[in-house]
Amino acid sequence: MGTTEDRVLLSGVPGSPYTRKMLALLRYRRIPYSLIQLSHEAPDLPRPKVSLLPTFYFPGADGDLVAVTDSTPILRRLEREHAGREARPADPALALIDALLEDFGDEWLTKAMFHYRWAYEADVAKAAAVLPAYTRARLPDVELRAAGKAFAERQIPRLRYVGSNAVTGPVIEASYVRFIDLLEAHLRDHRFLLGGRPSASDFASYGQLTQLVHFDPTSMALTHARAQRVAAWVLLMEDLSGEDPKPADWFDADALPATLTAILGEAGRTYAPLLLANAAAVQAGASEVNAEIDGKPWVMQPFVYQAKCLAWLREEYAALGDRDRARVDAALAGTGCETLFAAGR
Asked: How far is the C-alpha of 2 from the C-alpha of 10, rounded, in Å?
């Protein structure tokens, strides 16, 4: 384990949803860590192959530190290497549902986060002013403003990578409104997505919502007007180190509450058809994904990583025993998510 005095070592910034996801997870699991804010120079640390945040530093086979990114496999590594207070259910059927919802948070909600941040003038202005200050606060004001302008000019064209454009924007926004309404309804009776203790899927959604609910002006105003429980939940999720989780706190995968089934229905309504269309485009070597999502057109460039996400979900589903696979099928029936695992898709 990459440690400094037995601490997990990572780098990141507060404006990174995935950094926030993993910091909240580490706090909840009471895994000691050292966070290197990117405002500090760390020349002795290795660089990842692809610069993503957060970056974890784990020892390689030769003992030297290796830079590792991608929050989902890191979360699973921490589950293997640190016992107790697990964020993944022991029940394989519920764990598959958790994996699906974690992916929805990481890969679909991030479209809303990136869209709202870089598609609206007020949001662009705030992001350009604040985000560069996480790493360059000591610059003179004129230089910091110039850095913010350059940062925004780099980020706005990258909307195409997450699929935000004039065609898809209304689909993304409508889905975000539905999601916060559904999560608000769920939180009326339940503390977390999968019961009385947090799961990987909670931390994934939380990471994106730290920005959508408490930073970016347009989505923040929208959420605070519609979903006060969600706004509070995001702040509460930040530090769950005082929780006392028990095995009985997980939902029974055979009797999921209607509010969770409704959230799965949102994933099946939007993210599932996108995963299938994107995977088909990647496999065909197409230059564009053309699909219909929620009855509306969706056009974006293919995203190889999300094709891998679908493959990983299918691998986990295929690894289930017959009984657990049948339980997952029953839980997902009618949500639209079942299409991800249908034969021939």
From this structure: 9
